[in-house]
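User: Second chain of the day. Same drill as before.
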Amino acid sequence: MQRFLVFLATALYLAACAPQPEPQSVEPALPDPAVSYEAGIAASEEGDFAAAADRFSEAAQLGHPQAQVRLAQLYESGKGVARSDAEAARLYQLAAEQGHPVAQDRLGDFYSRGQSVPEDDTLAAQYWEAAANQGLADAQAKLGYVYEQGLGVPFSFESAAAWYGKAAAQGHGAATYNLARLTYNGQGVDPDRAQAIRLYEKAAQAGQADAQFTMGLFYAEGGYGISQSWPAAVAWWREAAGNGHLEAQYLVGNAYHDGDGVTKSHDEAMVWWTRAAKAGYAPAMMKLGEHFADSEVVKRDLVRAYLWYDTAVVTFVRDDRRSEAALKRDAVAARMSGAQRQQAAQLAETWKALF
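Assistant: Same format as last time:
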């Protein structure tokens, strides 16, 4: 027994003296980028953009392209993070290099505008083409435009029409309108007025304001298979006006003034002209100037007439229209009393600041 105890003690001593293995360091487990991305989506849907940014950032750092795009969009909007176009561009670049079409499209936008990157039409077109080749309709429409204008690519109506056609086939309103315009004029495609009108109507029904305005013109004039109809013309102009089309707002005002397709109403005419004028449409300013100066159905107000004419002077681009507005403004000024001139002078700078 004594020998056994000596043996056991010796064995324990030798074991204690033996070199011990180095403790293995345990690397912290990396988050699953897909899980972080989904958590970011959930936080976004709940309106917690700071938490969304944290989760998207985790996934983005691990190369998740959708997360990089989502995080870039937060940096563009300033939701949950400090707004930074430079950081958005960096993230879009990372996702674009992985072939993400939305990132390619947005990066094209950045290069087109010189937004935190050097302005470069050639690079913009290249990124849009990469996204367009993946079927992104917005990029196809932009690529059609740059071919039509020769921006960063060789000018080509044929290529423009082809790319507009691809986007139009996906229901892209602006591309459908542009394809209609080229088809109407026979640019890049065979001229076909009837097909052009069908395309204009398709774009108009998709809510494209320029197409709605154009359909109004077709119905106002008639022809090419369309029966002249003032009610239809005004209906389309009202649609365009509701989508912010200033000339459409102006023409709706004209329709109410003349009673074309609607019940004649000078009050409604003034409402529509004022709406267009306040948005910066100079012909509507001229109409308001004329009515405040001389109309029999609107209370005469020479100060307002002067101010609208004066605003038109600085709003018109064409020199002949500016001169016309200046002559009418000066004619009104000659009819004003000293007090009215003083009032107009006091209001003029504040009035112009609105535009």
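The CA atoms of residues 36 and 55 lie 5 Å apart.

User: Great, on to the next one.
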